[in-house]
From TrEMBL:
ADP:ATP antiporter that mediates import of ADP into the mitochondrial matrix for ATP synthesis, and export of ATP out to fuel the cell. Cycles between the cytoplasmic-open state (c-state) and the matrix-open state (m-state): operates by the alternating access mechanism with a single substrate-binding site intermittently exposed to either the cytosolic (c-state) or matrix (m-state) side of the inner mitochondrial membrane. GO terms for molecular function: ATP:ADP antiporter activity. This is ADP/ATP translocase. GO terms for biological process: mitochondrial ADP transmembrane transport; mitochondrial ATP transmembrane transport. It is a multi-pass membrane protein. It catalyses: ADP(in) + ATP(out) = ADP(out) + ATP(in). GO terms for cellular component: mitochondrial inner membrane. Belongs to the mitochondrial carrier (TC 2.A.29) family.
Length: 348
């Protein structure tokens, strides 16, 4: 929220740095010569190429990480699937989930729901850029001028507002992705799937629950964005002046691993919220639903215990590792093919 909240929960620092660089270039002042529009055109072209290559990277990254993403969602939501007769036995872990999914549904099933996830990413990033700028201008706090806490509050408020605004437009795609990824071939239901594809998710959900069925869990998702950002920026600003000192002050690797570790930490802190919202999504179209996010949280804790809120968290961490690895390989491929990296500091 990734932007969509799924992306906000755990996002590789590589991706964040890349997007910030692209956005900064779009804002950079351009000197326009009176005799030609070439510099402006070149700047615009550079931004468009960088942005498009960033989108291509996102599609490649998400597609490469789709198998572990689906496993994460299956493990995370298995108790809802068992409850509604769509899963016979609980998964014993990541390896067991992979093995059973491939055995029962085939290798290609690991990418089930990926199309909706890739489609969701494109409008999410464009909306995030637009809304983030809008809310930043609205608050306009400076860390040095106004002090840390005002700046921190502004960061939470503007980031949360931008994320929630973007989420309003793309949440139904995140819902559809979640339902497709968790649509395992149910042994108790003759090995049939619940949905035939993306459009079928929309059709059946609207028929049974109306438009609200597509937005189940939306409110708690917005809360999750603020919680994630609060942990991320709070911990990062606290540790940066302590850890990145001396020889490590200008070290890219030290900065990356600090950001990476904090990203995982913030993701784990907000992971129970992600579990609650996705468990709520799973009840659309079913006879029994949670009354709200607090009811969902209460029932899960009472019937399944705290551990259930963190099911799939290990797979989610692996997803971050996979994303970072794909990005490193993708940058190397661009250097080989194009002679430079697009959408990063290497681009022009």
């Amino acid at each position: 929220m990734s932007g969509g909240y799924g992306d906000e929960i755990i996002k590789s620092p590589f991706v964040a740095n890349r997007q910030d660089t692209i956005l900064q270039r779009s804002r950079a002042p351009v000197l326009i010569q009176s005799t030609t529009e070439a510099p402006l055109e070149k700047k615009t072209t550079s931004f468009v190429v960088d942005f498009l290559m960033g989108e291509v990277f996102a599609a490649v990254s998400k597609t490469a990480a789709a198998p572990i993403e689906r496993v994460k969602l299956l493990i995370q939501n298995q108790d809802e699937m068992i409850k509604f007769g769509r899963l016979s036995d609980p998964y014993k872990g990541i390896a067991d989930c992979f093995t059973r999914t491939i055995k029962d549904e085939g290798v290609l099933s690991l990418w089930r729901g990926n199309t909706a996830n890739v489609i969701r990413y494109f409008p999410t990033q464009a909306l995030n850029f637009a809304f983030k700028d809008y809310f930043k201008r609205m608050f306009n706090f400076d860390k040095e001028r106004d002090g840390y806490w005002k700046w921190f509050g502004e960061n939470l408020a503007s980031g949360g507002a931008a994320g929630a605004s973007s989420l309003l437009f793309v949440y139904s795609l995140d819902y559809a992705r979640t339902r497709l990824a968790n649509d395992a071939k149910a042994a108790q239901k003759g090995g049939e799937r619940q949905f035939n594809g993306l459009l079928d998710v929309y059709r059946k959900t609207i028929k049974s629950d109306g438009i609200p069925g597509l937005y189940r869990g939306f409110t708690i998702s917005c809360v999750g964005i603020v919680v994630y950002r609060g942990f991320y920026f709070g911990i990062y600003d606290s540790l940066k002046p302590v850890v990145l000192v001396g020889n490590l002050q200008d070290s890219f690797f030290a900065s990356f691993f600090l950001g990476w570790g904090i990203t995982i930490g913030a993701g784990l802190a907000s992971y129970p919220i992600d579990t609650v919202r996705r468990r709520m999504m799973m009840t659309s179209g079913e006879a029994v639903k949670y009354k709200g996010s607090l009811d969902a949280f209460s029932q899960i804790m009472k019937k399944e215990g705290t551990k259930s809120l963190f099911k799939g968290a290990a797979a989610n961490i692996l997803r971050v590792v996979a994303g970072a690895g794909v990005l490193a390989g993708y940058d190397k491929l661009q250097l080989i093919v194009f002679g430079k990296k697009y959408g990063s500091d290497g681009g022009s």
